[in-house]
Amino acid sequence: MDNSHSTHCCADCGGVAGGGAGLKACTSCRLVKYCNIKCQKNHWKKHKKVCKQRAAELRDEALFKDPPLKEDCPICYLPMPIKLIACMTLTPATISSVPIYDYAEANEEVANIGTETYYSCCGKSICKGCVDSFRKSGNIGICPFCNAMTGGKTNAEIVEELMKRVKVNDAGAIYVLGNDYHNGSEGLQQDQEKALELWTRAAELGSSTAHFALGLYYRAGGDLTKAKFHYEAAAMAGNEGARNNLGNMEYRSGKRERAVKHLIIAASAGCYNAMQNLLDLFKHDLVSLDEIESTLTAYNNSCAEMRSESRDKYISKLKGPRE
Predict the structure, then answer these.
(1) Do residues 5 and 14 touch, judged by C-beta distance below 8 A?
(2) Is the dihedral of CA 274, 64, 220, 176 positive or negative?
(3) b/e string for 146-184 if b means 16 or more Cβ within 10 A?
(4) Which of 304, 277, 317 is nearest to 110 (CA)?
């Protein structure tokens, strides 16, 4: 018996336990329902092809839908870019190339770094533009959000404070502690296994940055299946850096259409590297002018939302005078 097209009875035995209310849907495709695990196992050979196809369709629907809005810095209330370079704008499209503004050209080499500082005293991540402005006003060694003293602490004290946040399942703190073990910083012995454990825990708690870190880790180790899984999880949570990497992976595997979709979404969210990758494809006639122009408009709008005087000054300070 095959009742695959009915959601009112068991797809295996045709039963309608509890008038249909007691049936459990297949968690992968949601197309069919079963009385119990036994019926589901019995029906699997008939169902698996349709199930896998629909599960892949649902996965793509989730993967390629508009990403969630970025989190704001709790001080300036501006969207938090993944990298400072995301704050840089490009000129409108031309026939063959789009040069970078002088501002970006002068600061590109230092702008591809993280944009936020995590404070374990209050569990807040604050953009480095606000942190820099706060310090310039004379508030050295003080948290810009809760005004707790942060300076003058030993490595042991820093880790102890971080552990308090880890114990209450603060994903940001868990991710940061994973970084410390990965880098061997804050007096901790370098331990990649511990870093992996902590990043995995942070990812399970919803940290897109932790998923991105896991994607990088597994890709470096040659496990492209796991790398892609974590990049996709990060991308669906709004991490445009992970989506850019997904675009690159899809392009290398010959899936150009999927690659372009990823790059357009990432660039539209303000990912500089994705925008540059699209421009390279455009030069080789692999992306249309209409796609480039519409994506550039979205890219520049996203960048404009993330630009601020304090962030510009912070980038310029890192760069220093040009030689």
Answers:
(1) no
(2) positive
(3) eeeebeeeeeeebbebbeebbeeebbbbbbbbbbbbbee
(4) 317
What are the pLDDT digits (tens) for 11-47? Answer: 999 888 655 567 999 999 989 999 999 999 999 999 9
CA–CA distance, 213 with 222 (Å, rounded to integer): 14
CATH value of 84-319 in 3.40.630.30, 1.10.530.10, 1.25.40.10, 1.10.10.10:
1.25.40.10
CA nearest neighbour of 299 among 63, 69, 89, 77: 89
* Tokens coding 2: 């095959």
Residue range 197-237, pLDDT digits in tens: 999 999 999 999 999 999 999 999 999 999 999 999 999 99
Question: Domain coordinates of the chain in residue numbers?
Answer: 17-64, 84-319
How far is 250 from 274, CA to CA, in rounded Å?
A: 13
Alpha-carbon span 73 to 148, nearest angstrom: 18
- State which amino acid sits at residue 80: M
Residues making up the chain, counted from first to last: 323
Tokens at residue 184, please? 């061997």
How confident is the model over 235-274, as pLDDT tens digits?
Answer: 999 999 999 999 999 999 999 999 999 999 999 999 988 9
Q: How far apart are CA 239 and CA 78, in angstroms?
A: 16
Dihedral-angle region of residue 14 (phi above 0 means left; psi in -120 to 50 means alpha; beta otherwise): left
pTM score, two decimals?
0.85
Beta bridge partners of 114: 83
Q: What amino acid is encoded at 188 in this protein? A: L
Beta strand 24-25 pairing with 33-34: antiparallel
- Unique residue bearing structure tokens 């770094």: 113
Contact 80, 270 (CB under 8 A): no
